[in-house]
Amino acid sequence: MSKTLTLSVDADGIALITIDLPGRPMNVLAPEFNADFAAAVEQVASDAAIKGAVVTSGKSSGFIAGADLKDLVNAYDAGITPTQAAQASQQISSLFRRMETCGKPFAAAINGVALGGGLELALACHWRVLSDEPSTQIGLPEVKVGLLPGGGGTQRLPRLIGIPSALPLLLQGKSMRPAEALKLGVVHAVAPTAELVQRAREWLLSKADNAAVQPWDRKNFRIPGGAGPMASHAPQTFVAGNALTSSMTQNNYPAPTAIMSCVFEGTQLPIDTGLRIESKYFGKLLAGPVARNMTRTLFVNKTAADKLSARPRDVPRGAVAKVGVLGAGLMGAGIAHVSAQAGIEVVLLDNTREQADNGKAGIAKMQAKTLAKGRTTQAKIDALLARITPTADYADLQGCDLIVEAVFEQRQIKADVTRKAEAVIPTTAVFGSNTSTLPITGLAQASSRPQQFIGLHFFSPVEKMPLVEIIVGEQTSQATIAKALDYIGQLKKTPIVVHDFPGFYTSRVFGTFVQEGQRMLLDGIAPALIENAAKAAGFPVGPLAVSDEVTLTLQQAIARQHDADGVPVQYRSQVGRAVVDKMVDELKRPGRRQGAGFYDYPADGSPKRLWPGLAQAFPLAPQQPGVDELKQRFLTIMALETARCVEDGVIDNAADADIGSILGIGFPPWTGGTLSYIDTLGAERFVAQCQALAAVHGPRFTPSPWLLARAASGTRFYPPVSAAA
Ligand code: NAI
C-alpha cells in the first residue's frame, strides 16, 4: 500500500482514492505523492473491474493546498535551470493528462481548500463536486508568488469557463467561494462535505461510457465564448487581461505576462501542445529571482512568522482575554476593533467618556459598512460591540492582561498614562506602546515593571494592514515577548521582532523613501516624474502622496524630536527638513487632512492633483533624469538603510526585514524585500551601485566599512541552500 493515499474498490466497481500525506497538516503535491498518485491512476486504468474513481482527501483541513513552496525555494537555491523546472512541470502535466485520457472517469470530491496544484488536479478530473462550507476556497494563486499554474491551470481553466472569465482568476490569483465556483462553472455541483463522496459515486455510476472524455478532447469542442474550434482570439477577449497585466506588472513582474502568453498561445492549439507551452513558461519563471524571492518572503517566511516562529520556546503559550487600549483615536480605535474581532474583551479609554464613545462609534460605523456588503451579520456586530467598553475611568482597566497605549506621541503624556494604568492592572500584565518613533527603553522609564514593557507598533489603517512590529526594549523579558506574540497571533496579524532604536526598523527605512522623494524635489526633478518613478518601481504610492498622508507636520515634529534627543546625524532627515519646514511654515501646506500638501485635495471629493505651485516653490532643473535612475535611488536608499539596521543590531533576521519592508512600508514585492534586493543583485554589485550614487548625490549613499567587508567576502543575508538541501 502506498504511503500518501489509499485506494479501495467498492462492490459497484468504483475506486475511492483518499489522499492523506502523513506528517503534514495539509495535503501538498510532494514528489512522494506524485509517484503514489501515478500508480493509483495506472491501477484504475488497467483494472477491468474498476469503472471509475473518486478522488478525495482524508484531511479535515481540506483537499490539496498545492505544491510545497519550500521545495520550490530550495530548488531555486540549488540552481535549478529553466529546462529542469519545465521538466518538473511537464511530469505533473503528463500525470494529470494520463488521468483524464486513460479511459476511466475520475470525479473529484473536493472537501475544502483546493489551491494551485490541488485545483489543477481537480480540473483534470471529469467531474467536480465542492464542499458547500462557506470557508471553502478554491483558486490558482500562483501569480501572487511570481509563478503561474504549471499543472495545466492556464490551459484547462480557459477551456472550461472561457478566456474572459479565466483571465482575472489566473492574473489576480483570487480564490473563489463555493457559490462563485459553481456559478462560473469551475465545479459541477456543491454539496455538504459529508455527502461529497456519495455524490461523486452517483455521478460516476449514472454516466455512460463517454464520461471519461474531457470536453476539450471531444470532436467539435469550442472554448466557451469562442467562435472557432479553439479560442476566437478576438481582440476584446484579451482586453481585460491586458488591463490587469499592465497595471500590475510595470515590467517588474514576469508572471502575469507569461500567463497571458500561455493562454493566448495555448488556446489556439490542441491541449497537449498548450500544456507544453505552459511548462516552458513555468520553467522560466521558477528559475528566475522574482518567483524565488516572492515565494520565500511572502509565503514560506511569512507563514513561519504567522505561526509565531519567533516565540521564545520555553514560555508556555497563552491567550489575551482582556486588553485595555489607551487612546481612542485613529490607532486606538483600530486596535480595539481588531482585538474585539478576535474575541478579546476590550476596555477603550480616552480623556473623556465622550471621546471614548466616539472611538467606539467609529467602529460601529465600519461594521455597518461591512454589513451592507453582506460580509457580516447583525448578531456578530452586536457581539463584537458588546465586547468593547468605552470609558474615561482607569478603574475599568482592572483585570486587563495587556495594555496597548495609543495616546498622543508625547513622552510626558505617555508616561502619565503608563503610571495611571499600572496602578490598576494586574502585576503580571504586559504594557505595550504603539509609539511610532519614541525609543521603548526610554518610555519604559515611566514603568515600574520595565521587563513587562514592549513596543507594539501597528500600521494605519489597523483593520487592513497585516504587519505589527514588536520592539524589544533593553529590559523587556522573554515572557513579555511571548505574550506580545501570542496577542498578535490572536489578531491573525504578521509579527516581526526588532530591537530598540529611534524609528525602530520600519519607520527608519520608510523615512529614507519619503526623504529621497523630497530630496528629488530639491534637485529640481518634476514632481510627477518623482511620483511615477516610485510607482514604476512597484511602490503602491509615490513619496509625495505618502508624505501628505502621514502629514508634513508629523515629519516636522519627528525631526524636531530628533534634534532635541541629539539623534546622530546619520539617522536624521537632513535633506527632507528644508522641504518639510518650507511646506509647513512658509507655504502652509501640511498634508491631506488639511486639504493641502504636495497635492491639492478638492473639497468636492474629486481626485487629488499635484499642487501647481510646486513648480515655483521647487524650481525645475533644466535637465530631467530618466525614470530608471530615480527607481534605483528609491530601491537603493531603502535597502542600504535596512543593511544599516542589521549593522546596528536593530534587526537580526533577514526574513523579518524583508517581510516588514513589503507588508509595512510598501517596498515592492517583486524584490522579495529590502535584503533580498541586495542578495539578488549580489552585495558586490549593490555596493558599487551605492558608491556610484554617492558620487553624484552625496554620502547618504555611502556604504559602511561593514557592508564593504561583507561585499568583499561575498557574504549574503540569506545563506545559500546547498545543492543537497
Ligand atoms: P490620534 O490623535 O488620532 O489619537 C490619540 C488619542 O489619544 C486621542 O483620542 C486623544 O484624545 C487620546 N489621548 C491623548 N491624551 C490622552 C490621555 N492622557 N489619556 C487618554 N487618552 C488620551 O493619534 P493616533 O494617530 O491614533 O496616534 C496614537 C499613537 O499611535 C501615537 O503614539 C502615534 O505616534 C502612534 N502611531 C500612529 C500611526 C498613524 O498612522 N497615525 C501609526 C503607528 C503608530
TrEMBL record:
GO terms for molecular function: enoyl-CoA hydratase activity; long-chain (3S)-3-hydroxyacyl-CoA dehydrogenase (NAD+) activity; NAD+ binding. One of its GO terms (biological process) is fatty acid beta-oxidation. The keyword Zinc-finger does not apply. It holds the Pfam family 3HCDH_N. Residues 503-601 form the 3-hydroxyacyl-CoA dehydrogenase C-terminal domain. Keywords: Fatty acid metabolism, Lipid degradation, Lipid metabolism, Lyase, Multifunctional enzyme, NAD, Oxidoreductase. Residues 322-500 form the 3-hydroxyacyl-CoA dehydrogenase NAD binding domain. It comes from the Bacteria. Signal peptide: none annotated. It catalyses: a (3S)-3-hydroxyacyl-CoA + NAD(+) = a 3-oxoacyl-CoA + NADH + H(+). Pathway: Lipid metabolism; fatty acid beta-oxidation. InterPro entries: 3-OHacyl-CoA_DH_NAD-bd (IPR006176), 3HC_DH_C (IPR006108), 6-PGluconate_DH-like_C_sf (IPR008927), ClpP/crotonase-like_dom_sf (IPR029045), Enoyl-CoA_hydra/iso (IPR001753), FA_oxidation_alpha_subunit (IPR050136), NAD(P)-bd_dom_sf (IPR036291). In the central section; belongs to the 3-hydroxyacyl-CoA dehydrogenase family. This is 3-hydroxyacyl-CoA dehydrogenase / enoyl-CoA hydratase / 3-hydroxybutyryl-CoA epimerase.
